Amino acid sequence: MHSRILRTAALLGVAALALAGCSSSSSSGGKPAVAQNDKAALEIWIRTTPGSPSEAAQKAMVEAFEKKTGYKAELTAIFDDFETKLAQRAGQRKLPDIVMNDISQLGTMHTQGIVREVSSTDVPHSKDLTPQAAAAGKATDGKTYAVPYSAQANALLIRSDWLQKLDLKAPKTWDEMRKVAQAFTAQDPDGNGQNDTYGLAVPGSTKRGYASWYFSNFLWAAGGDFIKKSGDKFVPGMSDDASVKAMEWYRGLQCTDKVMQPGAVSMDTPPTNEAFETGVAGMYLTGPYMMPRFDKSLGADKYEVVPAPKGPKDASVLAEGGAIYLMAGSDNEKGQNAFADWYIGTDAQKAGMEGQNGTFSVQLPVNQKVKVSDVRDDQRWETFATAYQDNGRYAPNIPSWTPVRQMTADTVNALLADCSLDLKGELTKLDGKLTTELLTQGILKK
């Protein structure tokens, strides 16, 4: 997995050299190097499964953009080999005009030189972005290269019927969470007389760095970090006391309490989702995008949404979301700007939250003038919105977050899978690997 990512990144890096003459634009103070045509249809790529409800929801948004602005646009959904196909287009000097992808891809795409800077003059609604969203769109040079259009943060989904059966309350602290997890595992909350329930659903696989991605919620709430900012550079942080304590507590759920669902260390999100909705596990720290599915499969009356329990430091949770990237070499920069500006305006943000057939192109609004309650009469969404506003934390926008996430996932997974491993020793070795990676990326504080 890691080697494939590196090969793709290298391919994109080489291909991006072909775009060097095309990447200067009016947004960075000069005139576009490519002849402009305001009538040219915008080619928009989105990373999602073709034919999926997500594609349908985004197509509805693109159609609304065309109707509102007069610009023409065509949406293409791609999931398999997305990066490879993007690299091929870069090599052909014909990138799509817009790419809609995770905000976590900002560092990589900026480093590859395939995105152009976004000007607040050209995208006026950017002044209305929440502080977190505005900061998430900036690369390590302090300039903006992405426009977040949707946000999300994690909260705790918990079986309310199980709580009632065992006369328990939703946990507010880590200690309470551990006790509820133990009770869900040992006290037959579903009443079937079988020893077949567990406290916490965990996607602990190394695939795409899931083990690290999920653990970040607990690491940050304990005051730990994968890498720490030091001036304008970074240093590794996994062997620091706060990080070690976070890992000790988290590992204890697996190795001592045995409250994670069976096979957690080999599961990514699809089977973990099933573990929660089928009654294998009673708690799941996840995002709002899972509610429509669980409302249908499990029943909205069977679970509730509460804030993530407070850790030793605070209740920090992972924040993520989708972003609009204005790709280098476009022959319709005005259209690019117009799409980004329209999407983060109040009307589009509300339309995105309304969604299509239970699928939302906007999970939580990034425009601070828009409230979830403007569209959704559901207190659960407010819980997620508060989590984002008060405790949401994005992964750092370093040149490439993917290798950091992957190598930390490998270690977190190993510590969960083998309870005999020396925890502090493994985290110390991980910091050595992180030091090398930060050095390679040119961001190590020496």
From TrEMBL:
A single cellular component GO annotation: ATP-binding cassette (ABC) transporter complex, substrate-binding subunit-containing
PROSITE patterns in UniProt: PROKAR_LIPOPROTEIN
UniProt keyword terms in alphabetical order: Lipoprotein, Signal, Transport
Residue ranges the record marks as coiled coil: none
Family matches, as Pfam families: SBP_bac_1
UniProt signal peptide: 1-20
A GO BP entry: maltodextrin transmembrane transport
GO molecular function: maltose binding
Protein family (similarity comment): Belongs to the bacterial solute-binding protein 1 family.
Name the UniProt record assigns to this protein: Lipoprotein LipO
Native source species: Microbacterium azadirachtae
Organism ancestry: Bacteria, Bacillati, Actinomycetota, Actinomycetes, Micrococcales
